[in-house]
Amino acid sequence: MVISSLSQKNTSLKLYIKYMVSLRCKMVVKDELLKMGLHFTNVDLGFVEITEELNLAEHDALKLSLLNYGLELLDDKRSILIEKVKNIIIEMVHYADELPEVKYSEYISKKMGYDYTYLANIFSEVKGITIQQYIIVHKIEKVKELLLYDELNLTEISYKLQYSSVAHLSNQFKKITGLSPSYYKKLKEKRKETLENI
Fold first, then answer.
1. In the prediction, which pLDDT does 196 show?
2. Is the pTM of this model over 0.85?
3. How far is CA 30 from the centre of its chain?
4. pLDDT tens for each residue of 7-16
5. Topology (CATH level 3) of domain 2-75
6. pLDDT 10s digits, 38-69
7. Are 45 and 21 in contact (CB under 8 A)?
8. CATH entry, 79-191, from 1.10.10.60, 1.10.3720.10, 3.20.20.10, 1.40.20.10
């Protein structure tokens, strides 16, 4: 049996991988593909394009080797859609220089080529949270990161992440973390000082 239905274009086969959210994950996937003698044209967050079709034994071997690193080769359409949405959000919030000017719903819909309501319904049904909540969680993670870098003040961070005001950012931050941004920063600085004094 040949695995070729996962989204084929020309001679490349696109495989979707869950939990592939960092540069380190991309390196792991490249290494595993090379170990198996598979050739890739593109390795990006959440997917890889390979130049050959996989037989069932190769598919299972790749699935198993990726599982060793906490990565999961996806097979069903809904999981693939959700993983694509998650990766668009992660890329948008953590890796893009600036957030899109359009509404997130429009941005995601355009990137995916699907109606946003359709995507939102599947996402909520499977993940148990809305796409909007998922975006907020990642924006707060980005705020934490920016606070620790100490290059931007809270006003600049709120502008960079498109909050309507510092108060809006602070309220959302407290709702998610239970702490104010300034208190969070103090805690982290104190912890860093303590570690340096050990």
1. 65
2. no
3. 18
4. 444 467 889 9
5. Alpha-Beta Plaits (3.30.70)
6. 999 999 888 899 998 888 888 899 999 999 99
7. yes
8. 1.10.10.60
